[in-house]
Design a protein that fits this description.
alpha/beta; two-stranded antiparallel ribbon
Length: about 350
């Protein structure tokens, strides 16, 4: 293996990256099937071509299980990051099917959990707010003199919110060891980002805040890994907040109006898993037999984990209100505490 062409990663690391990519796809496809079968009541958030972004970024960080590693706050489309940060496969299905045995005991049917030990921070719904949350988390790293960094993901739509700009301004001014990963698909919900901003690359915004920035192909897992690893090294060394833009181009909402047809054809072929698989074989970093074995293993693991979660119960009614808003136990209709507040007497 050519060390330079693989960014210094050995064969086992290269295989681990492919395993994480394939596991993400296998788990999400199984989850979509469960939704069709009626086992998942809410939405299913699939990576949809963004597997390389979550996996590459997570693999570049210091992942530990004792509360001393880096922190990562992905979007809801990042199962690959969850698995690399210690998330159990069966817990992924339990959580999405709102099982009592899941991390949030069935109170939430999405990837919004938080694990202080592994450093995984589930996203809140309001776009842009996680940048503010992670600015606070990483400020604590700097104030304590810890060589830890945090990564926060966001889409291009978040960059049009006040919270996003406030968070980036604060993080930059406080020299927080934070890496902002922007998944630039050129779409913000149901409209193109050119209707929100004049910039074509969100790295153009970084200069206004004094933030270092780099832009890479979001479907190239090795390019994402290298960009986030470099940004993390700068942040650990006191270089402050960094931005990494992951470039995508999708026609998943309305149309390809104004987009070069040649560019459309190029990007429609960019499946990150197939691209990496071809690269592994072309560079002799893996054999066909090795890749097939990985794919079979992760597919079977996903199937078994899903079946296990299906067989487990949903939450019991009396448990639904525990540890949601406070530790005060309440009774139906859940509007009044059964232990009156003395201050209101």
């Amino acid at each position: 293996m050519s060390e330079g062409s693989a960014f210094g990663l050995g064969r086992s690391n290269i295989h681990a990256l492919y395993r994480a990519l394939y596991l993400t796809r296998a788990a999400e496809e199984r989850l979509e099937l469960l939704r069709v079968q009626g086992h998942v009541a809410g939405d299913v958030h699939r990576s949809g071509g963004r597997e390389a972004g979550a996996v590459g970024a997570a693999y570049a960080l210091r992942r530990k299980g004792d509360g001393t590693g880096d922190f990562l706050a992905p979007t809801a489309h990042a199962a690959g990051a969850l698995f690399l940060f210690g998330g159990e496969l069966v817990d992924f299905f339990r959580q999405c099917m709102a099982r009592e045995t899941g991390p949030t005991k069935g109170k939430d049917a999405n990837a919004n959990g938080f694990d202080r030990q592994t450093g995984f921070v589930g996203a809140v719904s309001s776009p842009g707010t996680m940048l503010e949350v992670m600015a606070g988390v990483t400020l604590s790293f700097r104030l304590r003199g810890e060589e830890r960094v945090g990564v926060v993901f966001c889409g291009p739509g978040a960059s049009s919110t006040g919270a996003w700009h406030e968070g980036l301004c604060f993080a930059a001014a406080q020299e927080c060891p934070l890496i902002l990963v922007v998944e630039n698909s050129h779409w913000a919900y149901a409209k193109q980002t050119r209707k929100n901003t004049r910039v074509t690359s969100l790295t153009e915004m970084a200069a206004g805040y004094g933030v270092g920035a780099r832009s890479v192909d979001g479907t190239d897992v090795l390019a994402v890994f290298d960009a986030v690893r470099r940004a993390a090294a700068l942040a650990r060394a006191g270089g402050g907040t960094q931005m990494v833009e992951l470039r995508y181009l999708w026609a998943e909402h309305d149309s390809w109006d104004g987009v070069d047809p040649a560019l459309i054809a190029e990007w429609e072929e960019k499946d990150p898993i197939q691209l990496f698989r071809t690269r592994l074989l072309t560079n002799a970093w893996a054999s066909e037999q090795e890749l097939v074995a990985i794919e079979k293993d992760e597919f079977e693991r996903s199937s078994l984990a899903a079946e296990r979660a299906i067989a487990e119960p949903g939450p019991r009614g009396p448990d639904a209100v525990e540890n949601v808003y406070s530790d005060v136990r309440v009774t139906h209709p859940w509007a009044r505490a059964d232990v009156p507040d003395p201050a209101l007497a």
